Amino acid sequence: MDYKRLTDQQIVALAREGREAAFRELIARYERPVLSLIYRLVRDREKAEDLAQDSFIKVLNALDRYDPSYKFSSWMFKIAHNTALDHLRKKGLDTLSLDGSPHAATADETAASVLTAISEDETPEEYTANRELGAEIERAIARLRPEYRTAITLWHAEARPYEEIAEIMGVPLGTVKTYIHRARNELKQHLAHLRI
Amino acid sequence: MSESILHPGADQLEAYVEGTLDEAQQAVLESHLLGCPRCQAELEEWRGLFAALSSMPQLEPSAGFADRVMAHVTLPRSAAARLADRARRWLPRSTLGWALVTLFLALPVAAAAAALAWIAATPWLSLDGVLLWGFEKATAGAAWLTSQASALVLQSRPALWLTGSIETLVATAGLRGIGAAAALFGLIVVASAWILYQNLFRPHTRDVTYAHYSF
Q: What pLDDT sits at residue A181?
């Protein structure tokens, strides 16, 4: 069976029948967006991966109780968002560590914890320029409030509509619009020196 | 360009790049942009920001991420597997158990085989005759059981109380009164059914509950 052609709802239905391949397809579809969203909230590569793992475990073990009349992606992102926020609340963390995990003990661990983006076909010059721009954007995003980070990541990086972001974050639509508008204005100021 | 010209606000330029302005607002803005380098420059800043944010990279999980997740996921059993599990619970677990079950199941088969052999060996008996005799006996038995059961029900205290109450009701309220009571009862049944439908079968509305779970 070609799982790639099926919708999320169809994959979920197969997973509920106990097909492991369907579970793995759901992970394949959402591992990158979920990890990216959590990373932009917690700013620690290793911790983000642990929290993404926890989010998937929660969602996949609760599939039999999932209501298919809602979008699977909304549910997945909602759990990921809440898991990351719980972590931030517990640890009182909201800091920037773009250059690697603050918990890394050795240089190798630090290198392993640094953001590793998916690089497409780029020349070395483009790679360097994009990496610098990407790092500046990540730094600017890190300076935003966590709720702004979620909203801006979901709108721009994941192309989610305002309504879905409101569902994911559990706030009214107008609040999401305000978050995104303010976040963009702050980012514009933070990135003004780049003349992007 | 004179400074007295009313320039569009940053919100409008942002909405223009986002694509959320309506056609009329868009047309007004575009005509202003044609002659205003200052707003063109600001528009380019917004475009640059949108392009930069939309090109934010996605992170690649480390190798074995899916395996680590799956190690903590309990796969639901398929319906066939669950049925097989349930059936397996009823099966004997020892040789002695199997022997007893085999003996138990073999008894009726052996009895039926012996009866058939006896019928075949007896010249004044035929299989048709035996089946007909059995059918008649079974029908008569069922009829006797039905009559006994209905007599028991009709002569029971609740049945006698119910018939007495109906007779009293007809004598006092008349047929119209009974009709009115029946209509009221019917109305209550319909209302109850509607309330049940609203609460049990209608899909949920807001308050996004994607799943009913607790962690």
A: 95
B91 φ, ψ (degrees, to nearest 5): -80, 145
Q: What is the ipTM of this complex?
A: 0.77
Is B61 in contact with A167 (Cβ distance < 8 A)?
A: no
Q: Mind listing the pLDDT tens digit for each residue in B75-109?
A: 887 777 778 878 888 888 888 888 998 999 899 89
Secondary structure of residue A66 in the 3-state scheme:
strand
**Residue A66 backbone phi and psi in degrees, to 5:** -75, 135
A187, B65: Cβ pair inside 8 Å? no
Identify whether A110 is part of a domain: no
For chain B, the structural domain boundaries read: 10-54
Number of domains, chain A: 2
| Cβ separation B60–A118 shorter than 8 A | yes
Coil, helix or strand at residue B145: helix
Tell me, yes or no, whether A97 and A129 share the same domain: no
User: Are A153 and A66 contained in the same domain?
Assistant: no
Q: Are residues A130 and A48 in the same domain?
A: no
- Chain A residues within an 8 Å CB radius of B64: none
Radius of gyration of chain A (CA): 18
Nearest residue, CB atoms, A32 vs list B60, B76, B78: B60
Q: Does A112 fall in a domain?
A: no
Q: Which residues of B touch A (CB under 8 A)?
A: 10-11, 14, 45-46, 48-62, 65-66, 68-70, 72-79, 81, 203-204, 208-213, 215
Residue A37, in any domain of the structure:
yes
